[in-house]
Amino acid sequence: MPATRFPLRRSLAAAAALPLLAVALTACGYGSAAKDDDAKKANVSADGKKLSTDTVKIGYFPNLTHATALIGIREGIIAKELGGTTVKPSTFNAGPSEIEALNAGSIDIGFIGPSPSINGFTKSRGKSLRIIGGAASGGVKLVVNPKKIKTLDDLRGKRIATPQLGNTQDVAFLNWISEKGWKVDAQSGKGDVSVVRTDNKVTPDAYKAGSVDGAWVPEPTASKLVAQGAKVLLDESTLWPDNKFVITNIIVSQKFLTEHPDVVEAVLRGSVNTNEWINAHPDKAKASANTALKELSGKELPAEVLDPAWKSIRFTDDPLAATLDTEAEHAVKAGLLEQTDLTGIYDLKPLNKILKAAGKPEVSDAGLGVK
């Protein structure tokens, strides 16, 4: 994979929408002092300015790669920046359902992967969303049954799971297969390697039953498989320049961005502050994310899964726009994307304003920003 790619103008083939979990959570406050109560009544942000709406609806996955949202909401870091504007969170199990919620106005801002971001933008002909920031990089691995697969060449003829047809990991695996010189039909998954589309929740059971020989999956699914005896054969980050590639973006509906730019900036400040806290306090952050997962799913991750999974994820404000462009190119090569213009998918002006004010370096939109 080359270190740089020219900006690509693509569109994503329509992905099948999955059911919406729409888990409603209680709104998150910050502190209990009278001062905070007064702020809520006045609907003002942390810097004392009155915000333009009473609520902001934020969507994300109950997943470690969405830890910026998990922690930012649970710890009240995002709410602190919003003052009296209440956070109304919802969780989702797949990108298409979160995009549907954004388009329907059920959420205003979402944490989501690159493939559904591209899909949502292109299906709406550039009118539904903008990517306004990054959240996480990495956290994707190829894990295999070591009794059946000892080297990368041994994957030929084996059954390997990916989460969903056309999702970010599916596209990455199809591209890797292509670069090996092997052939696979992208739609059916049949070929030199059998690509078996399997929900991440089901993949550990499928592996245990022997119906798949491995999986190209995000964390914590990868580490769950390792805990069952699987072996990490490849960390996807090693395929990318500087070992970085986008796994989680922050998106916003264009309508909400136009009508409530102050609220968008407040959420972004909260995200930037959350990532800073995560990177400064990794152990506390890991514990907080695990507690949030338990609150959402009823189960926390055991240390044998949580620890290796957490280590493989980087939390960053940079959306790593060039890598999204490259991921789109891979999808085109696999036959899952048609060519189109992605110009305008990013609006990083609010984020760069926040980063500049904090004395941090600004980030690039790789030529795909709003003109």
* Coarse morphology: globular
User: Number of helix segments?
Assistant: 14
Residue runs with pLDDT of under 50 for 5 or more positions:
1-42
Q: Name the beta content range.
A: 15-25%
Question: Strand order across the biggest sheet?
Answer: 2-4-3-5-12-6-13
Instruction: Summarize model confidence as the mean pLDDT.
Output: 89
Taking the sheet with the most strands, its summary is: 7 strands, mixed
> Which percent range fits the helix content?
25-40%
Specify the structural class. alpha/beta
How are the SSEs placed, and which strands pair?
Elements: E1 10-12, E2 23-24, H1 34-42, E3 55-60, H2 67-74, H3 77-82, E4 86-91, H4 95-104, E5 109-112, H5 114-123, E6 129-138, E7 140-144, E8 159-162, H6 168-179, E9 194-197, H7 203-209, E10 214-218, H8 221-227, E11 231-235, E12 246-253, H9 254-259, H10 261-280, H11 282-297, H12 303-311, E13 313-315, H13 321-334, E14 337-339, H14 349-357
Parallel strand pairs: 3-4, 3-5, 8-9, 8-10
Antiparallel strand pairs: 1-14, 2-4, 5-12, 6-12, 6-13, 7-10, 7-11
Brief rundown of the structure:
Helix content is 39%, strand content 18%.
What does this structure look like?
With about 375 residues, the chain is α/β, with parallel strands linked by helices. It contains 14 helices and 14 strands. The protein has helices at about 35-40, 65-75, 75-80, 95-105, 115-125, 170-180, 205-210, 220-225, 255-260, 260-280, 280-295, 305-310, 320-335, 350-355; strands spanning about 10, 25, 55-60, 85-90, 110, 130-140, 140-145, 160, 195, 215-220, 230-235, 245-255, 315, 335-340. It has a 7-stranded mixed sheet with strand order 2-4-3-5-12-6-13, sandwiched between helices. Strand 8 (about 160), helix 6 and strand 9 form a beta-alpha-beta unit. Helix 2 (about 65-75) packs across helix 10 (about 260-280) and helix 4 crosses helix 5. It is globular and about 60 Å long. The two termini are about 30 Å apart. Residues about 1-40 have low confidence and may be disordered.
